[in-house]
Amino acid sequence: MATIGIIGVTGMVGSDLAREAVRRGHTVIGVSRHGAPETPLAGVEYRVGDFADTDAVMDLANSVDVLIITTASGRATGDWAPVLSAHEALIKRQPTTRLFVVGGAGGLRDDEGVRLIDNGFIPEDYAEPRVFARVLDMYLHSNPELNWVMQVPAITIEPGQASEQYVLGGDHAAGTLVTTSTFARAAIDEIEQPAHSRERYNVANA
C-alpha cells in the first residue's frame, strides 16, 4: 500500500479521492487551508496547509509515495495568480515524488484539434479552464526528470456515484460527464498501476 498526500483534500474532488484511497487500504495525509472537515473521513490524517507554501509542500512530497494536487482556490477570490505561482514554484523545486495533478478540461481539443478554450465552447470570461490549460503547459515544459501526470475530467464533472466502468481519452474528450467518484476510481487505478507518464489524459463515465 502507498502513502498518498492530497492537497485540497476537503474539496469536491479531493474528498472523493481520499475516500477511494482509504477504501483500498492506502495511507492518506490530507492538507487543506482549514484542516479537518466537520465530518472527518476515518483513515485520513488531516493537516492545515496551503499549496502556496512551497517549503511545506516539498516536506509533504518527501514523506509520501504520491502527491495529489487538487486545488482551485481562485474560485473563491477570482484571483488565480497564486495557483499559477504555486505550481510554478513546485516545478522549479523538482520534487522526486510522483506528482498527480488534477487539471481541467479546457485544454482538451475538438475534432479539428482546437482547444476548447479557443473554439468558443467555453465562455471568454470563464477563467478557470484557461488557468489550468496554462498549468498543463508548465508541466509539459518542465524538466524531463520531473515525474508527473495530469488527470482531467472529460467536459463536465459533478458529484455522484462511480459508474461501473469508465473511459479514458487523450487530447480529445472521452465523454461528456464524469462523476467525482468515477474520477477518483480512475485516479487511484493510475496511482496503483501507472499507465501514463508526463502527460495529460481525461476520464469520463462509461
State the helicity in percent bands: 25-40%
Strand order of the largest sheet: 3-2-1-4-5-6-10-8
Unreliably modeled segments: none
Could you give the count of β-strands?
Answer: 10
Query: What gross morphology would you assign?
Result: globular
SSE layout and pairing:
Blueprint: E1 3-7, H1 12-23, E2 27-32, E3 44-48, H2 54-61, E4 66-69, H3 74-77, H4 81-93, E5 98-102, H5 127-140, E6 148-153, E7 156-158, E8 166-169, E9 177-179, H6 180-192, E10 200-205
Parallel strand pairs: 1-2, 1-4, 2-3, 4-5, 5-6, 6-10, 7-9
Antiparallel strand pairs: 8-10
Helix pairs in contact: 1-6, 4-5
Please describe the structure with a list of short key phrases separated by commas or semicolons.
alpha/beta; globular
Short description:
It is built from six helices and ten strands.
Task: Describe the model.
With 206 residues, the chain is α/β, with parallel strands linked by helices. It contains 6 helices and 10 strands. It has helices spanning 12-23, 54-61, 74-77, 81-93, 127-140, 180-192; strands at residues 3-7, 27-32, 44-48, 66-69, 98-102, 148-153, 156-158, 166-169, 177-179, 200-205. The strands form 2 sheets. An 8-stranded mixed beta sheet has the order 3-2-1-4-5-6-10-8, with helices on one face. Strands 7-9 form a two-stranded parallel sheet. The radius of gyration is 16 Å and the shape is globular.
